[in-house]
Amino acid sequence: MPTKExxxxxxxxxxxxxxxxxxxxxxxxxxxxxxxxxxxxxARAEVERLLDQQPETPPEPVNPEPAxxxxxxxxxxxxxxxxxxxxxxxxxxxxxxxxxHKAVANLVSQELGNGNLSKQDLLEIIKHDNNFxxxxxxxxxxxxxxxxxxxxxxxxxxxGFIKLMxxxxxxxxxxxxxxxxxxxxxxxxxxxxxxxxSSGKTCALGAIMSVANNGFVAKxxxxxxxxxxxxxxxxxxxxxxxxxxxxxxxxxxxxxIYEMSFELTDENNKVHPITCIDLAGEVMEAMYLKNAxxxxxxxxxxxxxxxxxxxxxxxxxxxxxxxxxIEYGGENRLFKGxxxxxxxxxxxxxxxxxxxxxxxxxxxxxxVTKTDMTGKVKHELQEELRDYVNLHYRxxxxxxxxxxxxxxxxxxxxxxxxxxxxxxxxxxYCKFDDRAAxxxxxxxxxxxxxxxxxxxxxxxxxFKG
Length: 465
What we know:
- This protein is of the alpha/beta class.
- It has 3 domains: about 5-55, no CATH class; about 70-165, no CATH class; about 190-465, 3-Layer(aba) Sandwich (Rossmann fold), CATH 3.40.50.300.
- Helix content is about 45%, strand content about 15%.
- It contains 20 helices and 13 strands.
- The protein has helices at about 5-10, 15-25, 30-35, 40-55, 70-75, 80-90, 100-115, 120-130, 135-145, 150-155, 160-165, 200-215, 230-235, 280-290, 300-315, 340-355, 380-390, 395-405, 435-445, 455-465; strands at about 190-195, 220-225, 245, 260-265, 270-280, 320-325, 335, 340, 360-370, 415-420, 420-425, 430, 450.
- Strands 1, 2, 4, 5, 6, 9, 10 and 13 form an 8-stranded mixed sheet that branches. A 3-stranded antiparallel sheet has the order 3-12-11, with helices on one face.
- Strand 7 and strand 8 form a beta hairpin.
- The longest helix is centred in the middle third of the chain and has 16 residues, at about 300-315.
- The chain starts with a helix and ends with a helix.
Protein backbone atom coordinates (compact mmCIF):
# COMPACT_ATOMS: atom_id res chain seq x y z
CA MET A 1 0.00 0.00 0.00
CA PRO A 2 1.37 3.48 -0.85
CA THR A 3 2.61 5.85 1.83
CA LYS A 4 0.76 8.96 2.95
CA GLU A 5 3.21 11.20 1.06
CA UNK A 6 2.74 9.27 -2.20
CA UNK A 7 -1.05 9.47 -1.90
CA UNK A 8 -1.06 13.21 -1.16
CA UNK A 9 1.38 13.95 -4.00
CA UNK A 10 -0.66 11.90 -6.51
CA UNK A 11 -4.21 12.25 -5.15
CA UNK A 12 -5.61 12.99 -8.62
CA UNK A 13 -4.42 9.58 -9.89
CA UNK A 14 -6.41 7.53 -7.34
CA UNK A 15 -10.08 6.61 -7.61
CA UNK A 16 -12.55 7.52 -4.83
CA UNK A 17 -12.85 3.85 -3.69
CA UNK A 18 -9.04 3.67 -3.35
CA UNK A 19 -8.98 6.90 -1.33
CA UNK A 20 -11.71 5.56 0.96
CA UNK A 21 -9.59 2.44 1.53
CA UNK A 22 -6.55 4.59 2.38
CA UNK A 23 -8.58 6.64 4.88
CA UNK A 24 -10.16 3.61 6.55
CA UNK A 25 -6.85 1.75 6.79
CA UNK A 26 -5.27 4.72 8.55
CA UNK A 27 -2.66 5.43 5.86
CA UNK A 28 -3.80 9.01 5.26
CA UNK A 29 -5.92 11.17 7.61
CA UNK A 30 -9.09 12.52 6.06
CA UNK A 31 -8.36 16.10 7.14
CA UNK A 32 -4.95 16.09 5.41
CA UNK A 33 -6.45 14.66 2.23
CA UNK A 34 -9.08 17.41 2.24
CA UNK A 35 -6.35 20.09 2.24
CA UNK A 36 -4.78 18.86 -1.02
CA UNK A 37 -5.30 21.39 -3.84
CA UNK A 38 -5.30 18.65 -6.51
CA UNK A 39 -8.17 16.84 -4.77
CA UNK A 40 -11.08 17.89 -7.00
CA UNK A 41 -14.47 18.82 -5.47
CA UNK A 42 -16.26 16.08 -7.43
CA ALA A 43 -13.84 13.40 -6.21
CA ARG A 44 -14.15 14.74 -2.66
CA ALA A 45 -17.94 14.52 -2.81
CA GLU A 46 -17.76 10.93 -4.04
CA VAL A 47 -15.35 9.97 -1.23
CA GLU A 48 -17.73 11.57 1.30
CA ARG A 49 -20.62 9.58 -0.15
CA LEU A 50 -18.72 6.30 0.02
CA LEU A 51 -17.54 6.97 3.57
CA ASP A 52 -21.12 7.65 4.66
CA GLN A 53 -22.16 4.26 3.28
CA GLN A 54 -19.49 2.25 5.09
CA PRO A 55 -18.92 1.68 8.80
CA GLU A 56 -15.61 2.85 10.20
CA THR A 57 -12.97 0.15 10.57
CA PRO A 58 -9.92 0.23 12.81
CA PRO A 59 -6.65 1.12 11.09
CA GLU A 60 -4.52 -1.74 9.86
CA PRO A 61 -0.74 -1.67 10.23
CA VAL A 62 1.08 -0.46 7.14
CA ASN A 63 3.91 -2.72 6.04
CA PRO A 64 7.04 -1.15 4.56
CA GLU A 65 7.78 -1.64 0.87
CA PRO A 66 9.56 -4.99 0.44
CA ALA A 67 13.10 -4.89 -0.91
CA UNK A 68 13.58 -6.31 -4.42
CA UNK A 69 14.99 -9.80 -4.68
CA UNK A 70 18.76 -9.83 -5.39
CA UNK A 71 18.80 -11.51 -8.80
CA UNK A 72 22.27 -10.16 -9.69
CA UNK A 73 24.02 -13.13 -8.13
CA UNK A 74 22.12 -15.52 -10.40
CA UNK A 75 22.26 -13.65 -13.70
CA UNK A 76 25.20 -11.22 -13.42
CA UNK A 77 25.00 -7.44 -13.79
CA UNK A 78 24.01 -6.00 -17.17
CA UNK A 79 24.55 -2.23 -17.54
CA UNK A 80 22.00 -1.89 -20.34
CA UNK A 81 19.45 -3.80 -18.30
CA UNK A 82 20.15 -1.50 -15.36
CA UNK A 83 19.52 1.60 -17.51
CA UNK A 84 16.32 0.05 -18.85
CA UNK A 85 15.17 -0.77 -15.32
CA UNK A 86 15.69 2.83 -14.17
CA UNK A 87 13.72 4.17 -17.15
CA UNK A 88 10.86 1.77 -16.47
CA UNK A 89 10.77 2.86 -12.84
CA UNK A 90 10.43 6.53 -13.78
CA UNK A 91 7.78 5.61 -16.36
CA UNK A 92 5.66 3.88 -13.70
CA UNK A 93 5.93 6.04 -10.55
CA UNK A 94 2.76 4.73 -8.89
CA UNK A 95 4.40 1.30 -8.56
CA UNK A 96 6.63 2.69 -5.79
CA UNK A 97 4.72 3.51 -2.59
CA UNK A 98 7.66 5.37 -1.01
CA UNK A 99 8.20 7.48 -4.13
CA UNK A 100 9.93 6.62 -7.40
CA HIS A 101 12.82 9.06 -6.87
CA LYS A 102 13.71 7.42 -3.57
CA ALA A 103 13.28 3.95 -5.09
CA VAL A 104 15.72 4.77 -7.91
CA ALA A 105 18.19 6.30 -5.43
CA ASN A 106 17.99 3.11 -3.35
CA LEU A 107 18.59 0.95 -6.42
CA VAL A 108 21.62 3.00 -7.50
CA SER A 109 23.03 2.98 -3.95
CA GLN A 110 22.54 -0.78 -3.73
CA GLU A 111 24.32 -1.48 -7.01
CA LEU A 112 27.16 0.89 -6.10
CA GLY A 113 27.44 -0.70 -2.67
CA ASN A 114 27.60 -4.30 -3.85
CA GLY A 115 30.14 -3.48 -6.55
CA ASN A 116 27.93 -4.32 -9.52
CA LEU A 117 27.89 -0.70 -10.68
CA SER A 118 31.05 1.37 -10.58
CA LYS A 119 30.87 5.09 -9.92
CA GLN A 120 32.75 5.65 -13.18
CA ASP A 121 30.06 3.74 -15.12
CA LEU A 122 27.31 5.74 -13.42
CA LEU A 123 28.98 9.05 -14.26
CA GLU A 124 29.50 7.95 -17.87
CA ILE A 125 25.77 7.25 -18.14
CA ILE A 126 24.92 10.67 -16.67
CA LYS A 127 27.48 12.37 -18.94
CA HIS A 128 25.82 10.95 -22.06
CA ASP A 129 22.25 11.30 -20.75
CA ASN A 130 21.77 14.27 -18.42
CA ASN A 131 18.19 13.11 -17.80
CA PHE A 132 19.04 9.56 -16.74
CA UNK A 133 18.37 10.47 -13.10
CA UNK A 134 15.96 13.08 -11.77
CA UNK A 135 17.06 16.08 -9.73
CA UNK A 136 15.38 14.59 -6.64
CA UNK A 137 17.17 11.25 -7.08
CA UNK A 138 20.53 12.99 -7.54
CA UNK A 139 19.93 15.15 -4.47
CA UNK A 140 19.28 12.01 -2.41
CA UNK A 141 22.47 10.41 -3.75
CA UNK A 142 24.43 13.58 -2.98
CA UNK A 143 23.09 13.66 0.57
CA UNK A 144 24.09 9.99 0.95
CA UNK A 145 27.62 10.84 -0.30
CA UNK A 146 27.22 8.52 -3.30
CA UNK A 147 27.85 11.36 -5.74
CA UNK A 148 29.36 14.85 -5.43
CA UNK A 149 28.96 18.26 -7.03
CA UNK A 150 32.48 17.86 -8.46
CA UNK A 151 31.43 14.56 -10.08
CA UNK A 152 28.61 16.31 -11.94
CA UNK A 153 30.80 19.25 -12.96
CA UNK A 154 33.31 16.77 -14.38
CA UNK A 155 30.48 15.35 -16.51
CA UNK A 156 30.34 18.73 -18.27
CA UNK A 157 26.93 19.67 -16.87
CA UNK A 158 26.11 23.39 -16.71
CA UNK A 159 26.65 24.74 -13.20
CA GLY A 160 23.22 26.39 -13.26
CA PHE A 161 21.53 22.97 -13.40
CA ILE A 162 23.77 21.64 -10.63
CA LYS A 163 22.94 24.57 -8.34
CA LEU A 164 19.19 23.96 -8.72
CA MET A 165 19.66 20.26 -7.95
CA UNK A 166 21.92 20.94 -4.96
CA UNK A 167 19.31 23.26 -3.43
CA UNK A 168 16.63 20.61 -4.05
CA UNK A 169 14.57 23.05 -6.16
CA UNK A 170 11.30 21.37 -7.09
CA UNK A 171 8.55 22.12 -9.57
CA UNK A 172 5.43 23.90 -8.37
CA UNK A 173 2.04 22.44 -9.25
CA UNK A 174 -0.90 24.54 -10.45
CA UNK A 175 -4.14 25.28 -8.63
CA UNK A 176 -7.45 24.20 -10.16
CA UNK A 177 -9.42 26.99 -11.88
CA UNK A 178 -11.77 29.19 -9.86
CA UNK A 179 -14.86 27.67 -11.49
CA UNK A 180 -15.83 24.96 -13.97
CA UNK A 181 -15.85 26.23 -17.54
CA UNK A 182 -19.35 26.47 -19.00
CA UNK A 183 -18.85 28.02 -22.44
CA UNK A 184 -16.56 30.31 -24.42
CA UNK A 185 -18.03 33.80 -24.22
CA UNK A 186 -15.39 35.72 -26.21
CA UNK A 187 -15.61 36.30 -29.97
CA UNK A 188 -12.25 34.88 -31.00
CA UNK A 189 -10.34 32.01 -32.53
CA UNK A 190 -10.59 29.07 -30.14
CA UNK A 191 -7.41 27.01 -29.77
CA UNK A 192 -7.69 23.63 -28.02
CA UNK A 193 -4.78 21.67 -26.54
CA UNK A 194 -5.31 17.91 -26.09
CA UNK A 195 -3.04 15.39 -24.39
CA UNK A 196 -2.99 12.45 -22.02
CA UNK A 197 -1.51 13.01 -18.53
CA SER A 198 2.30 13.47 -18.60
CA SER A 199 2.36 14.16 -22.35
CA GLY A 200 4.34 17.39 -21.91
CA LYS A 201 1.29 19.51 -22.75
CA THR A 202 1.71 21.89 -19.80
CA CYS A 203 5.39 22.49 -20.61
CA ALA A 204 4.55 23.13 -24.27
CA LEU A 205 1.75 25.51 -23.32
CA GLY A 206 4.02 27.34 -20.89
CA ALA A 207 6.60 27.83 -23.63
CA ILE A 208 3.99 28.97 -26.17
CA MET A 209 2.34 31.42 -23.76
CA SER A 210 5.73 32.76 -22.62
CA VAL A 211 6.77 33.47 -26.23
CA ALA A 212 3.38 35.04 -26.99
CA ASN A 213 4.00 37.33 -24.03
CA ASN A 214 7.66 38.28 -24.63
CA GLY A 215 7.09 40.76 -27.47
CA PHE A 216 9.41 39.16 -30.04
CA VAL A 217 6.85 37.35 -32.24
CA ALA A 218 3.66 39.19 -31.34
CA LYS A 219 4.15 42.86 -30.47
CA UNK A 220 1.89 42.72 -27.44
CA UNK A 221 -0.24 40.26 -25.50
CA UNK A 222 -3.26 41.68 -23.70
CA UNK A 223 -4.73 39.17 -21.22
CA UNK A 224 -8.42 39.18 -20.33
CA UNK A 225 -9.00 39.21 -16.54
CA UNK A 226 -12.53 37.90 -17.12
CA UNK A 227 -11.51 34.46 -18.36
CA UNK A 228 -11.76 31.44 -16.07
CA UNK A 229 -8.04 30.56 -16.30
CA UNK A 230 -6.63 34.07 -15.78
CA UNK A 231 -4.24 33.08 -12.97
CA UNK A 232 -3.07 29.97 -14.85
CA UNK A 233 -2.50 32.07 -18.00
CA UNK A 234 -0.39 34.60 -16.11
CA UNK A 235 1.73 31.92 -14.48
CA UNK A 236 2.32 30.10 -17.78
CA UNK A 237 3.15 33.27 -19.71
CA UNK A 238 5.88 34.13 -17.21
CA UNK A 239 7.28 30.61 -16.97
CA UNK A 240 10.10 30.72 -19.54
CA UNK A 241 12.76 33.28 -20.47
CA UNK A 242 14.95 32.71 -23.51
CA UNK A 243 18.44 31.45 -22.71
CA UNK A 244 17.83 31.22 -18.96
CA UNK A 245 18.00 28.09 -16.80
CA UNK A 246 14.74 27.52 -14.96
CA UNK A 247 12.46 24.92 -13.43
CA UNK A 248 9.90 23.27 -15.71
CA UNK A 249 6.23 23.82 -14.81
CA UNK A 250 4.64 21.28 -12.51
CA UNK A 251 1.44 19.31 -12.83
CA UNK A 252 -2.10 20.52 -13.33
CA UNK A 253 -4.99 18.61 -11.71
CA UNK A 254 -5.88 15.88 -14.21
CA UNK A 255 -9.56 16.90 -14.19
CA UNK A 256 -9.05 20.66 -14.67
CA ILE A 257 -9.90 22.52 -17.88
CA TYR A 258 -8.52 26.06 -18.22
CA GLU A 259 -9.75 28.91 -20.44
CA MET A 260 -7.15 31.57 -21.33
CA SER A 261 -8.39 34.55 -23.36
CA PHE A 262 -6.07 37.21 -24.76
CA GLU A 263 -5.35 39.45 -27.74
CA LEU A 264 -2.12 39.34 -29.75
CA THR A 265 -1.00 42.30 -31.85
CA ASP A 266 0.95 41.29 -34.96
CA GLU A 267 3.68 43.18 -36.86
CA ASN A 268 1.02 44.88 -39.02
CA ASN A 269 -0.74 46.16 -35.88
CA LYS A 270 -3.69 43.83 -36.38
CA VAL A 271 -5.27 42.49 -33.20
CA HIS A 272 -5.96 38.74 -32.96
CA PRO A 273 -8.49 37.74 -30.25
CA ILE A 274 -7.63 34.19 -29.16
CA THR A 275 -8.84 31.82 -26.45
CA CYS A 276 -6.63 28.84 -25.59
CA ILE A 277 -8.36 25.95 -23.85
CA ASP A 278 -6.14 23.51 -21.95
CA LEU A 279 -8.21 20.33 -21.87
CA ALA A 280 -7.70 18.06 -18.86
CA GLY A 281 -5.72 14.87 -19.43
CA GLU A 282 -8.70 13.09 -17.92
CA VAL A 283 -10.82 14.11 -20.94
CA MET A 284 -8.94 11.74 -23.24
CA GLU A 285 -9.04 9.02 -20.61
CA ALA A 286 -12.80 9.51 -20.29
CA MET A 287 -13.22 9.35 -24.08
CA TYR A 288 -11.33 6.06 -24.13
CA LEU A 289 -13.48 4.61 -21.34
CA LYS A 290 -16.68 5.84 -22.99
CA ASN A 291 -15.69 4.32 -26.31
CA ALA A 292 -14.80 1.04 -24.56
CA UNK A 293 -18.17 0.99 -22.73
CA UNK A 294 -16.38 1.07 -19.37
CA UNK A 295 -17.65 2.94 -16.27
CA UNK A 296 -16.49 6.51 -15.62
CA UNK A 297 -15.85 8.11 -12.24
CA UNK A 298 -17.75 11.26 -11.33
CA UNK A 299 -14.68 13.41 -12.04
CA UNK A 300 -14.25 11.79 -15.46
CA UNK A 301 -17.92 12.38 -16.23
CA UNK A 302 -17.55 16.04 -15.22
CA UNK A 303 -14.43 16.53 -17.36
CA UNK A 304 -16.06 14.90 -20.39
CA UNK A 305 -19.28 16.86 -19.89
CA UNK A 306 -17.35 20.14 -19.69
CA UNK A 307 -15.34 19.38 -22.84
CA UNK A 308 -18.32 18.23 -24.90
CA UNK A 309 -20.35 21.15 -23.58
CA UNK A 310 -17.80 23.67 -24.85
CA UNK A 311 -17.17 21.81 -28.12
CA UNK A 312 -20.65 20.51 -28.96
CA UNK A 313 -23.63 21.36 -26.74
CA UNK A 314 -22.73 25.04 -26.22
CA UNK A 315 -20.35 25.40 -29.14
CA UNK A 316 -19.85 28.88 -30.55
CA UNK A 317 -19.56 29.92 -34.19
CA UNK A 318 -15.92 30.86 -33.57
CA UNK A 319 -13.29 29.29 -35.81
CA UNK A 320 -11.32 26.57 -34.04
CA UNK A 321 -7.80 25.11 -34.08
CA UNK A 322 -6.77 21.90 -32.31
CA UNK A 323 -3.32 20.83 -31.10
CA UNK A 324 -2.78 17.23 -29.98
CA UNK A 325 0.35 16.76 -27.87
CA ILE A 326 2.33 13.53 -27.56
CA GLU A 327 5.73 12.94 -25.98
CA TYR A 328 8.63 11.57 -28.00
CA GLY A 329 9.97 8.56 -26.11
CA GLY A 330 6.89 8.26 -23.89
CA GLU A 331 5.28 5.37 -25.76
CA ASN A 332 5.90 2.87 -22.95
CA ARG A 333 4.88 5.05 -20.00
CA LEU A 334 1.81 3.70 -18.23
CA PHE A 335 -1.09 5.72 -16.85
CA LYS A 336 -3.52 3.59 -14.85
CA GLY A 337 -2.21 0.47 -16.57
CA UNK A 338 -2.44 1.69 -20.17
CA UNK A 339 0.00 3.31 -22.57
CA UNK A 340 -0.36 6.70 -24.21
CA UNK A 341 -1.40 5.20 -27.55
CA UNK A 342 -4.27 3.23 -25.96
CA UNK A 343 -5.93 6.43 -24.75
CA UNK A 344 -5.20 8.25 -28.02
CA UNK A 345 -6.71 5.47 -30.15
CA UNK A 346 -9.84 5.34 -28.01
CA UNK A 347 -10.18 9.12 -27.98
CA UNK A 348 -9.96 9.50 -31.75
CA UNK A 349 -12.74 6.93 -32.22
CA UNK A 350 -14.89 8.89 -29.78
CA UNK A 351 -14.13 12.11 -31.66
CA UNK A 352 -15.21 10.50 -34.94
CA UNK A 353 -18.52 9.38 -33.45
CA UNK A 354 -19.36 12.75 -31.92
CA UNK A 355 -18.39 14.80 -35.02
CA UNK A 356 -16.68 17.40 -32.82
CA UNK A 357 -14.60 18.59 -35.78
CA UNK A 358 -17.42 18.67 -38.32
CA UNK A 359 -17.98 22.44 -38.10
CA UNK A 360 -15.78 25.52 -37.72
CA UNK A 361 -12.42 23.67 -37.52
CA UNK A 362 -9.65 25.31 -39.54
CA UNK A 363 -6.65 23.21 -38.54
CA UNK A 364 -5.51 20.12 -36.62
CA UNK A 365 -1.88 19.80 -35.50
CA UNK A 366 0.12 17.05 -33.86
CA UNK A 367 2.82 18.47 -31.57
CA VAL A 368 5.57 15.98 -30.68
CA THR A 369 7.44 17.19 -27.59
CA LYS A 370 11.04 16.43 -26.51
CA THR A 371 12.21 16.11 -30.11
CA ASP A 372 15.65 17.37 -29.06
CA MET A 373 16.16 13.76 -27.91
CA THR A 374 16.40 12.69 -31.56
CA GLY A 375 19.56 14.71 -32.18
CA LYS A 376 18.18 15.57 -35.63
CA VAL A 377 17.07 18.80 -37.30
CA LYS A 378 15.12 20.03 -40.33
CA HIS A 379 14.36 17.34 -42.96
CA GLU A 380 15.98 14.53 -40.99
CA LEU A 381 13.88 15.46 -37.95
CA GLN A 382 10.66 15.48 -40.00
CA GLU A 383 11.52 12.03 -41.38
CA GLU A 384 12.27 10.76 -37.87
CA LEU A 385 8.93 12.06 -36.57
CA ARG A 386 7.03 10.52 -39.47
CA ASP A 387 8.65 7.14 -38.81
CA TYR A 388 8.16 7.45 -35.05
CA VAL A 389 4.48 8.37 -35.27
CA ASN A 390 3.81 5.62 -37.83
CA LEU A 391 5.56 3.07 -35.62
CA HIS A 392 3.94 3.92 -32.28
CA TYR A 393 0.78 5.92 -33.06
CA ARG A 394 -0.28 4.78 -36.53
CA UNK A 395 -3.94 4.19 -35.65
CA UNK A 396 -4.30 7.55 -33.90
CA UNK A 397 -2.50 9.45 -36.66
CA UNK A 398 -4.53 7.71 -39.38
CA UNK A 399 -7.73 8.53 -37.48
CA UNK A 400 -6.87 12.23 -37.29
CA UNK A 401 -5.98 12.27 -40.99
CA UNK A 402 -9.35 10.67 -41.75
CA UNK A 403 -11.10 13.40 -39.74
CA UNK A 404 -9.19 16.04 -41.71
CA UNK A 405 -10.09 14.37 -45.01
CA UNK A 406 -13.78 13.94 -44.17
CA UNK A 407 -14.19 17.52 -42.96
CA UNK A 408 -11.94 19.40 -45.39
CA UNK A 409 -9.38 20.39 -42.73
CA UNK A 410 -5.73 21.13 -43.58
CA UNK A 411 -6.21 19.80 -47.09
CA UNK A 412 -7.04 16.41 -45.58
CA UNK A 413 -3.82 16.00 -43.59
CA UNK A 414 -2.66 16.56 -40.01
CA UNK A 415 0.25 18.99 -39.64
CA UNK A 416 3.03 17.44 -37.52
CA UNK A 417 5.18 19.93 -35.57
CA UNK A 418 8.38 19.07 -33.67
CA UNK A 419 8.63 20.75 -30.28
CA UNK A 420 11.33 21.28 -27.68
CA UNK A 421 11.77 23.71 -24.80
CA UNK A 422 15.54 23.52 -25.17
CA UNK A 423 18.22 21.76 -23.15
CA UNK A 424 16.57 19.74 -20.37
CA UNK A 425 18.63 18.42 -17.47
CA UNK A 426 17.81 16.17 -14.49
CA UNK A 427 14.25 15.85 -15.89
CA UNK A 428 12.99 19.04 -14.15
CA TYR A 429 15.22 21.89 -15.35
CA CYS A 430 15.80 23.48 -18.74
CA LYS A 431 17.74 26.18 -20.56
CA PHE A 432 14.95 27.64 -22.63
CA ASP A 433 15.16 27.73 -26.42
CA ASP A 434 12.20 29.64 -27.86
CA ARG A 435 12.40 28.51 -31.50
CA ALA A 436 9.75 25.76 -31.44
CA ALA A 437 7.33 27.83 -29.35
CA UNK A 438 7.87 30.80 -31.68
CA UNK A 439 6.83 28.63 -34.63
CA UNK A 440 3.55 27.80 -32.88
CA UNK A 441 2.84 31.47 -32.05
CA UNK A 442 3.51 32.43 -35.69
CA UNK A 443 1.10 29.69 -36.74
CA UNK A 444 -1.54 31.07 -34.37
CA UNK A 445 -1.15 34.55 -35.86
CA UNK A 446 -1.31 33.13 -39.37
CA UNK A 447 -4.41 31.00 -38.72
CA UNK A 448 -6.41 33.39 -36.53
CA UNK A 449 -8.46 36.37 -37.69
CA UNK A 450 -6.77 39.75 -37.24
CA UNK A 451 -8.51 43.13 -37.04
CA UNK A 452 -7.38 46.72 -37.10
CA UNK A 453 -7.90 48.01 -33.58
CA UNK A 454 -10.97 50.17 -34.29
CA UNK A 455 -12.52 47.60 -36.62
CA UNK A 456 -12.25 44.91 -33.95
CA UNK A 457 -14.34 46.98 -31.56
CA UNK A 458 -16.90 47.69 -34.29
CA UNK A 459 -17.12 43.97 -35.04
CA UNK A 460 -17.55 43.07 -31.37
CA UNK A 461 -20.25 45.70 -30.96
CA UNK A 462 -22.16 44.35 -33.98
CA PHE A 463 -21.82 40.81 -32.65
CA LYS A 464 -23.18 41.80 -29.23
CA GLY A 465 -25.99 43.73 -30.85
